[in-house]
Every structure is written in structure tokens, then in C-alpha cells.
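Q: Here's a chain of 284 amino acids. Please give me its 3D structure as C-alpha cells.
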Amino acid sequence: MTQLTDVRGEHLTTALFLAAGGVPVLPLRAGKKTFGNCRRCTGNACGGRPNMKTPGPCQCPKPCHGWAAATTDPDVINSPAWAYAWREAAAVAYHPGGAGLTVVDLDNADAIAWAREALPATRTVLTTRGEHWLYQGVMQSANAVRPGVDVKSSMAYARWLGPGTGTIAALPNVVRALIVKEPAAIRPVAVPVPALAGGGACPHRRPAFLERGIAMAEQRIADAASAVHATVFGAFLAVLSTHGRCGCLTEAHTARLFAAAQAKGESPRHCADAWANALARLGM
């Protein structure tokens, strides 16, 4: 019992030491798992979102929101609210992104061999099965970026296993590129193109007017930082409202619009639905 108490006290001491150096910490349960929601936050009723891109507004002092619970505040770490967690803790974790770091987690010998060949040398920490390679800089986290390799930085936690050896290097582009996915192949989709109203010539008379409209719609979609579905629908609606009734739109034009939407992650089905909804909205 004394030995177990000493280990738990050691975890708290380590956490306070790291926090004093600006590293946000949190306790881990056995199995490298974070502590579950406290009673008042069960089911994230407080609004906390440990598995989403941003933590919720919860101000609960207990370590109940995964990586978002990590803190450098010694009063919180040492508080009675956290005492139960340190009594049960099996390890200390930290939020790499909060410390300005990125951890390349190498799970096996093959992954380590790849890193030694492909990545610049940096500080290395031994793990149970492999190594953590630490870089100075923050990026998006991602699992399984290649066999046996995870990237832990923003919105993630890593187990503290010691300071490691070697000089820490700046985060290289080759690591950032690990999370960049190849764009999905663009599949052609048959979509209805409005017929020329009355069978006459396009009243706009200038092909450049249509080309500018398509280019503006493509750019509008490409620039969408959020609400991609709504942006795609709005772009389709704008093009159809201006050019849908004059007959100058062709399947080549719609293919360009669909390609822009799919490059932002929209599926062919979503594109077809947005196009159909825009036609319906305009009564075409």
C-alpha cells in the first residue's frame, strides 16, 4: 500500500513539475485512458466536448473532459476536486499542442526504421512499444497516418514518459504532410441542365460573363472554412439563378462546380442533392 501511495504521489509531483514549466497536464487511468465525466457533467451535459474540435464552455475543475482537461494551474492540479483522480491515476499525460509541441508516436520497429530514414533527427522518448519523436511546433493531430504512426499535437494527449534525449528540432513540413489526404477521385455525376428558355440565344451575349460566374462560384466554394454544405448550395443557387434559364449552362460547367465541391469533401450524392434543391428552389 505504501509503495502504491508513493507512486500516486510521484504522479502528482511530476504533474506539478511539468505544469510549472508550461506543460498542460492531466491524470490518466490504467490503459492510458482519461477520467470519465464527473457527476454533474455526465453525458457532457455541461457542454464539454472532449471528442470534438473544441472543448465546451464547462468550467468544471475536475479532469473530466479528456485532453481539454489538461492544465498548468497548480491550484487546480492540487485541488480536492482532482484528488480522487490522483488517487486512481496510473500515469501522467500532457497536451502536446498546449505545450507548443508535436509528438510523432512510433508504435513498432518498422515505424521507427521509417522515421530514421524519413524524418529529421529530434528529441526521442522511449515508450513501451516504440518511441515518441518530439518536434517544436503545433499541428492537427491524426491517428494511423501510416502503419504504426500517430501524430499527437492539438486536441490530443500523450503519456509523459520522461524528458527524452537529443535536441528538439523545429516541426518539419514532412511531418505536417503526413496528415494531408490525397483528394478523392472525382466521379462524373449526371445532373439536369436547364433547357434554353424559348429556344433563343443567351441574353447575356458574352461567354465571359458565364465563365466569370462559374469561376466565382468555384472560388466561393474553395474559400469555405466552415458550413461547406450551405456554401455549396448557395453557390449552385447563385449560378442557376443567373444562368439557369438562359440555356448557356452545360454539363462541363456543372462538372466544374461539382469538382470544386468534392474537393472540399462533399460526396457526389451531396452535390447532386444540392443541385436538385437549387433547381427546385428556383422552380426549374
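Q: Can you summarize the key feature?
A: DSSP finds nine helices and nine strands in the chain.
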